[in-house]
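>> received
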Amino acid sequence: MSDDIAFEQISYSGQVVVVTGAASGIGRAAAELIATRGAKVICVDLNQSGADETVASILKVGGKAESAVLDISDQKKISDLVSSINNKDKRIDALINCAGYPGPTGKFVEDINWDDFQKVIAVNLFGAIWLTQAVLPIMKRQKYGRIVQVASIAGKEGNPKMAPYNTAKSGLIGFVKGVAKEIATDGITINALAPAVIATPINVNTAKETLDYMISKIPAGRLGEPSEVAEIIAFMGSKACSFTTGFTFDISGGRATY
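>> returned
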């Protein structure tokens, strides 16, 4: 393969990429990296100021980006935003869904309030489903698309005292597997990513007992960095990811090898 062809496979030139959870952590790192590879990135987050900061950092180095506010647990708002982006830009080439919410940690399952349980499911699973439903008709018309759903090692192995999060991320992995088989001939791939614990703001309120447990399970003996996760995401969302679909990529410092 020539250098030009190889570059074309990882380039996002001329593409419109939607990144949720773009205000911080994995989402911000992914948005900034994908922008350097030529995409116009729509930085989506519930945190308006954080999304604006990500956009500013992209514009500062000559990239293309816009921000949008979204409550990912609201189906109508998802539909409206995706329609708005499509009406303006006439395309959506990739969806990178990094939005997440850990919910209660350090609690036995029987002690978790049901409203709290449902909120975690709504953000981490329902939102991912609704986003996928919204972008698929656009991608099918284009005969091209890449969907990346950031799941978690919790969805593969489960973490104690994190029942809502385990449930949501496990469901997301199963969702990705099935949808991939539906759209395999449409020029669209959909894959999940299962990070172990990463050094991001999402873990600020995680119970110390739970955080210590998760780190102890990582053979590499450290937290992952958002920049490391972003590199895998950038591949998953690119043209290069053309024959892998329905798969859950691992980035866990050796915790999961399956």
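>> The first strand starts at residue 16 and ends at 20.
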